[in-house]
What we know:
Strand order of the largest sheet: 3-12-9-6-4-5
Bound molecules: iron/sulfur cluster
Number of helices: 22
Amino acid sequence: MSGAFGTLPVAPSGVGRLRGDEPFPVAARRALGDAQLRRNLGRATATIRAKRARVVAELPDWEELRAAGQAIKADVLAHLDGYLERLESEFAGRGGIVHWARDAAEANAIVTGLVRGTGAGEVVKVKSILTDEIGLNDALAAAGIAAVETDLAELIVQLGHDRPSHILVPAIHRNRAEIREIFLREMPGADPGLTDEPRALAEAARRYLRRRFLAARVGISGVNFAVAETGTLCVVESEGNGRMCLTLPQTLITVMGIEKVVPTFADLGVFLQLLPRSATGERMNPYTSMWTGVTPGDGPQDVHLVLVDNGRTAALADPAGRPALACIRCSACLNVCPVYERVGGHAYGSVYPGPIGAVLSPQLTGIEQNATLPYASSLCGACYDVCPVKIDIPSILVHLRARHVEAARSPVPGAEAVTMAAAAYVMASAGRFGAAQRAGRLGRLIGRRGRIGRLPPPLAGWTAARDAPVPPAQTFRQWWRREHGDPL
Ligand code: SF4
């Protein structure tokens, strides 16, 4: 089925785009070979890191704010059902219509049905990672409806027939010259003399999008926060495109993950301080849009809210993994992660890349479908240090690794289990351990300059990515005996 941007693949139903096509190690190895990608990522993440550090340092009560954000989110997750019911009744009481979707397929069917009901063949969209998660654009395309991304970076990704690689800066893997080429190739009416100056690129996008905004009858948005006590939805953004989508069309459909609810307006105040400083390194977002149901004669008159589960209640059921649902999608953890900085977002396969993706995606899909992601970390802890809601990502990673090992345990022991059992047998006896050490000294015969580059199976996995040190000429026990005269 074709839309404004040509033929698009149709996403599988169910989990949407949470599952990668190939394991992380395979995709990461390929990404590491792309020097241009590493340069683009290195430059962009270093810039955002520095900005964030500057504005965070301005607030003497930053740690108190983080603790408040963590406490509010913990309360929300502990009483999610009650807050969602309150949100539903407040939103509906002010003229909005609430829909519930168990998974991606249900959410896509609801949104597609609503758009069809208006007779529109095109919708304008505010950047929404949840709609990426459920594969909404592909589902709309399959129904003959073109979805136009209006966030500049999302537009670059869409025109480039590409995938987002960062939560906040989806085209972070592209540089200015690449963006100019995409615009010239794909943007109808682009000026052939277009330069790669940021101002010129933004102006080209602005002219292109303005026509779409003015023609749009349906807008689709995500949501950053939803206030239960008033039924108010909130979207923050930097470009003003969101404000256009939220106010110009007659019909507004908002797609929201059920974890985005906050209890009160006062709680919202905490997150509106934490999010911009952590995300873009700004003191506040340039545009903060809020709407509460329908305002007669002003803005969209047909207002919907689609509440999406898609694996979230399963994550909620695991007390050790649950804190990942507290994420406010600031992307600070991506920008400090040494793994993300080198491989970029595509290697993670999921729409949620970086440290948060490594803990969220396996929980949303079930660990077996994203089994390699919890290992995509050095466990350095930098993500925990910057997280504005203090999600202990390293601990969740370790927990998910344990869950994966348990899930993968087979009645027939694998190579790793056999190796561990053999090691346990050898180490249980001083005699056997000494004999193994003497045998290990044979490794000195194959070492070069103090290193062994390749070991035979089952140890080959160790030397596939690193050298092993050559065993010392004498063991500690031998040294002890020589120095002290008696055995240990
Ligand atoms: S896990 Fe924390 S740092 Fe990472 S995106 Fe979510 S809120 Fe931001």
